[in-house]
Amino acid sequence: MTDRIGFVLSLILFSAFSAVCTFLAIGGGEELAFFFAVSGAGIAMIYPTVMAFIARRYPNGSDTAITFTVTLMGVGSVIGNYLIGWVIEGVKNAYGPTTQLGLLRGLQAGYGFIGLCAVICAASGVVLYGYLKRRQELI
Questions:
Q1: Which of 25, 29, 50, 68 is the most buried (most CB within 10 A)?
Q2: Is position 139 within any domain?
């Protein structure tokens, strides 16, 4: 499917799908909590799609490009996980660190941050799509 619609468009769709599912789960309460798991289907596709895009875009130097990208994604993942924890703890402490409401609001904020990151990923994909299309280098 990714090969048919294109790598960048796939990234946009997968990220947007994950964001929508995450926000549905947050807003829908327990009845729609399964959308947290469903959102993983979109997130899981991002990494291999990025690697396939790089391999096609840089056929001669893909080893270097992939190594650099994997390193940056790893650093971004560590920083992202730290920020998610920081958001959860900050909101939880604002509502009462030992209360059920504090825990609930903290987790909602943490998942909301994850959804926001998916929205940012989709928006970045739109910018990349436009840039590559203007240069006629869209894969």
A1: 25
A2: no
Whole-number Å distance between alpha carbons of 18 and 39: 4
Domain that holds residue 26: 2-134
For residue 90, the Cα-to-chain-centroid distance in whole angstroms is 22
- Is 35 part of a structural domain of the chain? yes
Cβ–Cβ < 8 Å for 129, 12: yes
Any domain includes 46: yes
Q: Residue 14: CB partners within 8 Å, gap ≥ 6? A: 42, 43, 45, 46, 49
Number of domains in the chain: 1
**pLDDT tens string 3-35:** 788 999 999 999 999 999 999 999 998 899 999
